[in-house]
Amino acid sequence: MLYQASRQVTVGLSELRRFAVDLKQNRGGHVSVAAFPAVSVFVLPSILAKFQMARDNARVSFATMHSREVYDAVATGRADIGLTVMDVDDNRVEKIERFAIPQLCILPIGHRLAKHAAIKAADLAGEPLISLSQDFTARSQFEAAIQVDKPRLQVVAETNHSNGVCAMVAAGAGCAMIDAISAQGWIGRVEIRPLYPPIQTQEFLIQPKDRPISQLASLLAVEITSSFRAFLTASMQHSPS
User: Which of 22, 105, 122, 151 is the most buried (most CB within 10 A)?
Assistant: First the structure.
């Protein structure tokens, strides 16, 4: 019994030493991310997979939320860092990175406007449009940008999810403006064209303001920033022009 007990202590001390080394070398621990739907579906999983596989004893988790909920999750400690498309004035968090996300026009396959290299707001006059809900920043920015031309826009459907917008366009219900991240998941199922003049929305990487995050979370924030910028660059290079 004494031998068994001493062996358990030895194994336990060995595990503690290994855990301490893992923490020192940023291989262990847990980090969580909250992100809006498009990112959590099309971009974040591959980033987290790469990050975790480089750190065998690290555990990663991510939750899909609407952008307003991302702020609350980070502020209350339910997530270490977050990705959001809403520029909310919340003194509980700080924005550590800002990304410019191009907005694109998507059309049903074979649509008459697909012959254009780029789509102007005036081109959409009289076309049935599928739109994000009124409380989305991207929609308000689009509406503000087209005031110059003031085309007769006909919104026939609204949804609070970009995939819902893309699915309705793919089904032939109308055209839409959508972010470049969401559009990547629908290549081959919809026609994708840049908008002219270009329209961009913002995305923010946020962390708690008054609570330090772990070194593991800091490393993940760096990885997300680098990978996300590379993704945006690649998506623009492969977008139709």
Answer: 105
pTM: 0.80
| Residues forming beta bridges with residue 179, ordered by sequence position | 103
Tell how strand 200-208 and strand 81-84 pair up.
antiparallel
Three-state DSSP state, 83:
strand
CB 237, CB 231: distance < 8 Å: no
110: CB partners within 8 A, 6+ apart:
191
Sign of CA dihedral 156, 162, 164, 169: positive
207 and 96 Cβ atoms separated by less than 8 Å: yes
Q: Is the dihedral of CA 81, 86, 92, 95 positive or negative?
A: positive
Nearest CA-CA partner of 55 in 27, 78, 79, 82 = 27
- 212 φ, ψ (degrees, to nearest 5): -65, 140
State the residue for tokens 């007990």: 5
Q: What is the pLDDT of residues 126-178, one digit of tens each?
A: 899 998 876 666 666 666 666 655 566 788 999 988 899 999 999 999 999 99
